[in-house]
Specification:
By secondary structure, the protein is α+β, with helices and mostly antiparallel strands. It has 2 helices and 3 strands; from the N terminus they run ββααβ. Strands 1-2-3 form a 3-stranded antiparallel beta sheet, covered by helices on one side. The radius of gyration is 11 Å and the shape is globular.
């Protein structure tokens, strides 16, 4: 079983569960500045507005991506 990945940025924490992902690539197509598998740290939530990151994650069909908004 692969470990849960966590990515922090101001205003949001994003988690990715590789055990749940179905590789539909919705995140990659929706917000490529944030989600880029060509980078070592493939999720960079600081690369877009918190609302944009949240919207892209809400579109994830498998639920592998999740987020928590920070105060």
């Amino acid at each position: 079983m692969k470990r849960l990945q966590t990515y922090d940025a101001p205003g949001i924490t994003v988690t990715f569960d590789p055990n749940v992902c179905r590789h539909s690539a919705v995140c990659l197509r929706t917000l490529p500045a944030v989600f880029d598998v060509g980078r070592r740290r493939w999720v960079a939530p600081e690369a877009a507005a918190v609302s944009e990151v949240a919207a892209a994650i809400d579109a994830c069909p498998s639920g592998a991506l999740r987020y928590v908004l920070k105060d």
